[in-house]
Structures are given as C-alpha cells and as structure tokens.
Design goal:
Elements (H helix, E strand, L loop, with lengths): L1 H25 L4 H21 L5 H14 L6 H39 L1
Helix pairs in contact: 1-2, 1-4, 2-3, 3-4
C-alpha cells in the first residue's frame, strides 16, 4: 500500500505547486499567502509518504484530498484535479491493501513449503 499511496502523494506535491503558480495569476491573494498555503500542502504531501505505515497516516491523506478539492474555491480547475486525486487515493488505499493481503497470504503459504 505504501508504494501506491506514496506515488499518489508525490503527484499531488507537483499539482499543489503548479496550482500555487496558477493561483498567483488568477487571484488577488498575496503571493506570500499563496506560497505559505501551497508550501504547507506540498510539505504535508511529502511527510505523509513517510507516515503511511503509522496510525493515522491514511486518514491524514484523506484530509489532504479534501483540502485539495477545497482549493477549487481559489483555482476552479482544482475541483476536477482534486476529485481525480481523491479517486487515485481511494484506489491506492483499496488496491494497496489487497496487494498487501495477497503478499502476506503467499508468504504464509510458502513458509511451510520451505520448512518441509
């Protein structure tokens, strides 16, 4: 699960940065405010890559997805991109867990065969 989720978060890192560039052109919000908010989002996406195996890591990832969708209030195209990344996040968590379960099952099946 970590690999799929981390890949999604790295993609979000770049999207948040590009959204900050777009927000500078489309809004009257100060550049400092845009880069503080964008920087926090970018930093959070990187930090979450390392927190995925810890309790609450996936939940924080969901919070980031909600924030990404909400950023559509400033940059309207982020409604769409946030929804796309929300779907990618869901798929990463869902299928990542299935892959982890399959790996554990295969390892358990292979263990008795190796001992015998």
């Amino acid at each position: 699960m970590r690999t799929l989720c981390a890949s999604t978060l790295i993609g979000e890192f770049f999207v948040i940065g590009f959204a900050g560039l777009v927000a500078m052109q489309l809004t009257d919000i100060s550049r400092a405010t845009i880069w503080i908010v964008s920087g926090i989002g970018m930093l959070l996406s990187l930090l979450l890559c390392g927190m995925l195996s810890r309790p609450g890591g996936v939940q924080l990832g969901w919070a980031l997805q909600i924030a990404l969708i909400a950023s559509g209030l400033v940059v309207p195209s982020m409604f769409f991109l946030g929804a796309v990344f929300g779907a990618l996040w869901w798929a990463s968590v869902h299928f990542g867990r299935k892959i982890d379960e399959a790996k554990a099952r295969f390892a358990a099946e292979a263990e008795p065969a190796a001992a015998g």
